[in-house]
């Protein structure tokens, strides 16, 4: 069984459209994350939720809105897509989100490759 | 702010040893992680260090010096399948993860 799953795996869309990416984890983890990996392979955190509450919100345009209906799901909605949004988006989860512990280890989903034309 | 530096690329031959260095400056420190990422795939966890010293896991070892803001990942007995990007990540204050840009390791026959 897949631990962290994302849908869709590929997303090709036109500028200006609105799209959503879904993420689910079956690990029983409390914390979930969204990362963006650009063409230079730099992995940058966007958001983090702990038990459905937003705990990290990096400098991300407000066109990006995460939603966590329960602690096993974290979805990402993007409005008015721009060319610069093209990237691979990774969802991840960890057992905890603070303190010094290997339980902060993050498990990543397979990624969603978004291409904006 | 947070800053993590690691070399862009390293090349080594099969069977050799490669050491990937990572230096960091972060707000708070709750541990350093190393991840492996093959092309087109998700990062996977390799190691975690929070205390100074060496952690060994089979062919891979990771070292940490908190006073120097320095870590390295040592890959021994390199295999072709070890060709991948290796990401250094630091967990700072408030559970915030910061990843380095990754080191592309190329293993040649």
Characteristic terms for this protein:
heterodimer, A: 117 residues, mainly beta, seven-stranded mixed β-sheet, four-stranded antiparallel β-sheet, 11 strands, 0% helix, globular, B: 109 residues, six-stranded mixed β-sheet, five-stranded antiparallel β-sheet
SSE diagram, text form:
The complex is a heterodimer of chains A (117) and B (109).
Chain A: E1 4-7, E2 10-13, E3 19-25, E4 31-37, E5 43-50, E6 53-57, E7 64-70, E8 73-78, E9 87-94, E10 107-108, E11 112-116
Parallel strand pairs in A: 2-11
Antiparallel strand pairs in A: 1-3, 3-8, 4-5, 4-9, 5-6, 7-8, 9-10, 9-11
Chain B: E1 3-5, E2 9-13, E3 18-25, E4 32-37, E5 44-49, E6 53-57, E7 60-65, E8 70-75, E9 84-91, E10 97-99, E11 103-108
Parallel strand pairs in B: 2-11
Antiparallel strand pairs in B: 1-3, 3-8, 4-5, 4-9, 6-7, 7-8, 9-10, 9-11
Description of the structure:
The complex is a heterodimer of chains A (117) and B (109). Chain A is 0% helix and 54% strand. Chain A has strands spanning 4-7, 10-13, 19-25, 31-37, 43-50, 53-57, 64-70, 73-78, 87-94, 107-108, 112-116. In chain A, the strands form two sheets. In chain A, strands 2, 4, 5, 6, 9, 10 and 11 form a seven-stranded mixed beta sheet that branches. The model of chain A has no long low-confidence stretch (mean pLDDT 91). By secondary structure, chain B is an all-beta fold. Helix content of chain B is 0%, strand content 57%. In chain B, the strands form two sheets. In chain B, strands 2, 4, 5, 9, 10 and 11 form a six-stranded mixed beta sheet that branches.
């Amino acid at each position: 069984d897949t631990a962290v799953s994302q849908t869709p795996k590929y997303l090709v869309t036109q500028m200006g459209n609105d799209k959503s990416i879904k993420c689910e984890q079956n690990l029983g983890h409390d914390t979930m994350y969204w990362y963006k990996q650009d063409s230079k392979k730099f992995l940058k955190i966007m958001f983090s939720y702990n038990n459905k509450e937003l705990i990290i919100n990096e400098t991300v345009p407000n066109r990006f809105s995460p939603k966590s209906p329960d602690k096993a799901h974290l979805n990402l909605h993007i409005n008015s897509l721009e060319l610069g949004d093209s990237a691979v988006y990774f969802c991840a989860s960890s057992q905890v989100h603070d303190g010094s512990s290997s339980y902060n280890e993050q498990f990543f989903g397979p990624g969603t490759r978004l291409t904006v034309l | 702010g947070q800053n993590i530096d690691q070399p862009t690329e390293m090349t080594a031959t099969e069977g050799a040893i490669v050491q990937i260095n990572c230096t960091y400056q972060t707000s708070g420190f709750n541990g350093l992680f190393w991840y492996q990422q093959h092309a087109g795939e998700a990062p996977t966890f390799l190691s975690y260090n929070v205390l100074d010293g060496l952690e060994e896991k089979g062919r891979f070892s990771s070292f940490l010096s908190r006073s120097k803001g320095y870590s390295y990942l040592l890959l021994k007995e390199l295999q072709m399948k070890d060709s991948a990007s290796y990401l250094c990540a630091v967990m700072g204050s408030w559970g915030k993860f910061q990843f380095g840009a990754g080191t592309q390791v190329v293993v040649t026959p």
